[in-house]
Write a structure and sequence with these properties.
Its EC number is 2.5.1.10. Belongs to the FPP/GGPP synthase family. By secondary structure, this protein is mainly alpha-helical. It is built from 15 helices and two strands. 73% of the residues lie in helices and 1% in strands.
Length: 290
């Protein structure tokens, strides 16, 4: 399984710069876009999309453009998250953040460029019917926008310095992190011609996986290795953010992580596809150290 995921990751990382280099745009903006796109990372969102396609025994090539567009949107969100007006981070994956290298104005524009270009990449994707493209673009806009990631980020900002309830915290993470992860799986299922029942089960699976992913993030912010994470640990405490460990204790957060992963795997087994690669990604999410 590991070799297959590595192969998929290489495909994504080879294609991303091709999209940027083909742009007829100022070199500064292309450099800033590429800087964050090539900063490393797990590529968990595009890998989930391609692994879902694999589960339906489809050629993963048909999902490469959508997977790259998805990674562009995720990368734009990280650039903006790191800005002084948001999390004010100096490091991302062990490297200076985009605004530290290119300045705040160009970092904002690089994020804007990645967001808008992502939809062009999906719209221009070959081997996908117009009807399916429209559906994928619509769902991507919803997952990334005010009803998804952006809405979750706003709720996260509003929750800083306040004691919030677990239900509010889950809203933040279901939207800020979970909606794009959920889209990854849904897009793969749509391209894989899943039935409505299969799509429903995979959506529920992705919901649990997304929450588990964020819980693991919260745990790593307490007991992670800064060298592996690539940024300072303890930033949630420093920013006075409510997290799963702060609401449930560290042991309670680990129990919650286990419960979500158990339910995710159970749902995955009900889909009726070759979910071996998706199960492998579940293991990565649950045990990752960065």
């Amino acid at each position: 399984m590991e070799w297959l995921l590595r192969q998929y990751k290489e495909q994504i990382e080879q294609q991303l710069p091709v999209y940027i280099e083909s742009l007829r745009a100022p070199e500064t903006i292309k450099e800033a876009m590429l800087y964050s796109l090539q900063a490393g990372g797990k590529r968990i969102r595009p890998l989930l999309l391609l692994a879902t396609l694999h589960a339906f025994r489809k050629q993963v090539d048909i999902g490469i453009a959508v997977a790259c567009g998805l990674e562009m949107i995720h990368t734009y969100s990280l650039i903006h998250d790191d800005l002084p007006s948001m999390d004010n981070d100096d490091l991302r994956r062990g490297k200076p953040t985009n605004h530290k290298v290119f300045g705040e104005a160009n970092a904002i524009l690089a994020g804007d460029a990645l967001l808008t270009y992502a939809f062009q990449v999906v719209a221009d994707a070959e081997a996908i019917s117009p009807d399916v493209k429209v559906r994928l673009i619509s769902e991507l806009a919803k997952a990334a926008g005010p009803e998804g990631m952006v809405g979750g980020q706003v709720a996260d900002l509003e929750g800083e310095g306040k004691m919030i309830h677990l239900q509010q915290l889950e809203y933040i993470h279901r939207h800020k992190t979970g909606k794009l992860l959920q889209y990854s799986v849904r897009a793969g299922a749509i391209l894989g011609e899943a039935t409505e029942k299969q799509l429903t089960l995979l959506t529920l699976f992705a919901d649990h996986l997304g929450l588990a992913f964020q819980i693991r993030d919260d745990i790593l912010d307490i007991e992670g290795d800064e060298q592996k994470i690539g940024k300072k640990v303890g930033s949630d405490i420093e920013n006075d953010k409510s997290t799963y460990p702060s609401l449930l204790t560290l042991d309670g957060a680990k129990k919650k992580l286990y419960d979500h992963m158990k339910e995710a795997r159970k749902l995955l087994d009900e889909v009726g596809v070759d979910a071996s690669l998706l199960h492998y990604i579940c293991n990565i999410v649950e045990t990752r150290d960065h």
